[in-house]
Amino acid sequence: MTQPTPIDGPPAARLLDLTRLVSRVARGWSGVDRVEAAYLRHLLTLPDPLFSLITTGRGTFLLDQDGTQALADRLFGRVDWGKPDLASYLFRKQPRVKRAAFSDLARLAIAHTRRNRPPLHLARHLPAGTAWINVGHSNLLSGGFEMMGMVPGGRSSVLIHDTIPLDYPEYSSPGSADFTDRLAIVARRADLVIYNSRQTQIVAERWMAGLGRVPPGIAALLGVEVTEPNSRELPEGIDLSKPCFVALGTIEPRKNHRLLFDIWEDFARTLPPEQIPDLHVVGRRGWMNGDVFAWLDTSPLVGRHVHEWNGLSDGAVSALVQGARGLLMPSFAEGFGLPPAEAHALGTPVIANPLPVYREILGNNPVYADVGDMYSWRNKILELSQTEKPRQTVAMGNAGRVPTWQEHFNLVLKVT
Fold first, then answer.
1. What is the pTM of this model?
2. CB 357 within 8 Å of CB 366
3. Domains with residue ranges and CATH for the chain
4. Which residues contact 173 (CB under 8 A, 6 or more apart)?
5. Residues 215 and 190 sit within 8 Å (Cβ to Cβ)
6. Taking the CA atoms of the chain, what radius of gyration do you get in angstroms?
């Protein structure tokens, strides 16, 4: 393992890759998207010049400080997107808001390349000594490293969130097929790799050693930001006075929702209806999970004791988690695991598979239960459902100590 060398003062400028956030316009944000957004918010507060790089179907766009601020205002909903321009009608199958976003990029950019062209000539618009930061794994194979190689004194830092596509390919989406290529170019070209946990660093560096080079790296836990709970935004029919539990995250195979459904089926067989707690499944449907989707579409428990929610506001999710008897995380694998940390900050107990990353972030605070032992999970859920939860609202941030973004950036910005 090679430790990064602290830099002497800030770089001449920073270049933040925002390809992922722009690609998510008109869709909800995932955990990785929220990390990219946190970098955008923080870097805009610094005195150092900030540029941004975005690749879309229309080409690659370079924005300066003013353009990046204007883009942030749109991404965070402070300013509406403009009108789609004529060129955007080549993408008329895209939602109107995404065509508007592409059009605004063209209006805000100081330079751009055509579609499918590497962004090499954008390098001349960047000051010598610019530091490129890639958080969303976009543009790694689209010429970003080559572009930075043309900037005198330029350097590149990449944040690795997990290596799940390599460790557990059976749980990965079809879009993860090029993950080996992405990790290989990071191993070969990155000046620094940022890891969201020590556990991620250990596993990723093991893979990169097999790829021929392990770049200098630093582990910096992600910040945990909890939105203020807002029960007024909860859908009608959610009764927080009744014992309930929450499973939060994309409905995909590695999240192991099937274990929870088996438990609730057991409850239905063995408990009077009034003693069965509610299970709220919060998250969009993902991939390769047909049997779980079929269960949600056909089980008689859905709508009675199991409820599926997609598109809840952040305030509603926080209110639901805070009001629940527990957050359930039977995942087979996680890169970081934001939901358990957020639940901990809200004062809500967590039952989780004993993954190393959970222990690194939350220590012994969760209730750990191996996912191979369904009846241990069943009994722990019942125990929590029968334990009265205090009615008073937990003060934000006072329930449990969690990592902060300031701590993260205190580490990262010393070496990027």
1. 0.91
2. no
3. 13-225+405-412 (3.40.50), 231-385 (3.40.50.2000)
4. 252, 286, 287, 288
5. yes
6. 23
